[in-house]
Amino acid sequence: xxxxxxxxxxxxxxxxxxxxxxxxxxxxxxxxxxxxxxxxxxxxxxxxxxxxxxxxxxxxxxxxxxxxxxxxxxxxxxxxxxxxxxxxxxxxxxxxxxxxxxxxxxxxxxxxxxxxxxxxxxxxxxxxxxxxxxxxxxxxxxxxxxxxxx
Length: 150
What we know:
With 150 residues, this protein is mainly α.
């Protein structure tokens, strides 16, 4: 199994587990004399099996990410780099928004507010970081499809 397939299965399992938890919650209590729409014991069993599979899959994904190297870095390090880039881009975009705000004054005697950083320069940096993120994401996706799950 390729790493990318394992990641897809992990996402599917997370959705399935959320669905099973909701279904279990809707069927665990019934009015006396009524029957549930689904057997809660079966739902619980299915939930346990899905969680067991997810646990096994996550361990294999983490093992693979820690052992697979690309451009001198493990996949774990590349994922951390991607997360940090996303955080940095978000912060830069927030700063661009704030630096771009126009503060209106009713009279010339009111306090004037000005941006201490250039919105245009912050936007250029955010755009450059976004380009770096796209390249890194493409590298990760390519590697995920080429790497066998360990």
